[in-house]
């Protein structure tokens, strides 16, 4: 079955380009396109897409607020959202990830990375582009005034080993190869990390790793 995608961007040419690119993939289908955050929220409730692909800077309601309303901590059935932006040092990206976004990409990321991010979000995972997002997370983590939360239980040595490549943007397959363990073992350790840290996804796990100076 195709993954249903909702695109939100205030520039018509970008919306059209993203729609054409995604519709060209055999297992992706754009079911709606919004010009602002308010329309994105409305269409998300109306069309029930599998993944949202949202720009940050939009009129009426920006991508951060739209993400918070559809994927925030208080949302019972959060929509997986990938945030895209023109700027690799956009001050709003950290807020979008805090609001519940599953990943962050530049608009020039290319079809392969874009489709990979959508598939990851649909599968309950998150794509962190190592060349952009990890650096961004590190920069904002150092600027955070509040102390990072403490895990409800101490992390095991193996969980600490898994935590670092997660924060560096490695996939489960890459982590498994790096640590000589199976992908199912990686998923088990990641699930344990999310439980102990109160994180909803691997993006928040990565943010915590940066906030605590582990990367």
Class inferred from helices and paired strands: alpha/beta
Sheet of most strands: 5 strands, parallel
Q: How many H/I helical runs?
A: 10
Rg, Å, rounded: 17 Å
Note down, in words, how this protein is organized.
The protein has 215 residues and is α/β, with parallel strands linked by helices. The protein has ten helices and five strands; from the N terminus they run E-H-E-H-E-H-E-H-E-H-H-H-H-H-H. It has helices spanning 12-23, 37-47, 63-71, 93-98, 111-122, 130-143, 157-167, 172-179, 183-197, 202-211, and strands at residues 3-8, 28-34, 51-55, 81-85, 103-106. It starts with a strand and ends with a helix. The model has no long low-confidence stretch (mean pLDDT 86).
List the helices and strands and how they pair.
Blueprint: E1 3-8, H1 12-23, E2 28-34, H2 37-47, E3 51-55, H3 63-71, E4 81-85, H4 93-98, E5 103-106, H5 111-122, H6 130-143, H7 157-167, H8 172-179, H9 183-197, H10 202-211
Parallel strand pairs: 1-2, 1-3, 3-4, 4-5
Domain HTH luxR-type: 148-213
Modified residues (4-aspartylphosphate): 55
Domain Response regulatory: 4-122
